[in-house]
Amino acid sequence: MGMNELRSPHGLQDWHMTAEDLFWRLAADLRATDARIVEGTIMNGRCLRVGKEFLALVDYKGSGLVVKLPHARVAELVRSGVGRPFAPAGRVFREWLAVPKPDRRRWLALLREAIAFVG
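Given the sequence above, the corresponding structure tokens read:
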């Protein structure tokens, strides 16, 4: 698979990548351009942070991308079907959105939005 295939604007090529593979590829791209983005840990797993603020994690119990956004934005994205509430152990985290299906364009846009929010 060449880089052009991975970077296709349609998001259709991501079906064969695992959520974790896509997340960490996007994380590497973002970290290369923004030194504030660092790896950390949350709920006994790897995550991304902007400084001390949590930014995103991947595939917590099959959740796909889990990203921190303003509560109103999360509600809007849930209503529109983009993602679903993130509710580990049944407790909904109001500022966290889960997007199960790997989609490079959508995930990158949401990660950039989250960086602006938490940064």
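The longest helix spans residues 19-33. Try to locate this feature in the token string yourself.
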